[in-house]
């Protein structure tokens, strides 16, 4: 329904309901005190975040704005690597979509640097300057 062009008039209501239900689900995950219960919910959270990462930038903005404080709280838990990886992608996309970060530029080729000092040489220079 959220992407069905013939139901475009319902998109705003669908988004409002999705935001409410999904933020309640993430809040529920945060409130879990049983480690085994949290483990059971981890796959649902993975699926949810993966699906949110696939939506358009405009829709992602609405979802990210709503879930951001909750997802920051999730970072305090011992998370499986797969969930950490999806959260990393989510936070990186937030940076791009909200124009608060840019993709890193590739390292220039070594030929463009006329001076090739090693880390050891730089450390020795810093040590000489400190004396």
TrEMBL record:
Start and end residues of each Sec7/BIG1-like C-terminal domain: 1-90
Region (Disordered): 103-131
Biased segments, Acidic residues type: 120-131
Name assigned to this protein: Sec7/BIG1-like C-terminal domain-containing protein
Originating species: Mugilogobius chulae (yellowstripe goby)
């Amino acid at each position: 329904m959220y992407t069905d062009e013939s139901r475009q008039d319902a998109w705003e209501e669908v988004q409002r309901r999705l935001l409410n239900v999904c933020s309640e689900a993430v809040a529920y995950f945060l409130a879990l005190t049983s480690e085994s219960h949290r483990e059971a919910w981890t796959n649902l959270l993975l699926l949810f975040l993966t699906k949110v990462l696939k939506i358009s930038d405009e829709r992602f903005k609405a979802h990210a704005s709503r879930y951001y404080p909750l997802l920051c709280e999730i970072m305090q838990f011992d998370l499986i690597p797969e969930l950490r990886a999806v959260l990393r992608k989510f936070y990186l996309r937030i940076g791009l979509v909200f124009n608060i970060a840019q993709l890193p530029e590739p390292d220039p080729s070594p030929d463009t640097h006329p001076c090739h000092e090693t880390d050891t040489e730089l450390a020795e220079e810093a040590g000489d300057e400190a004396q």
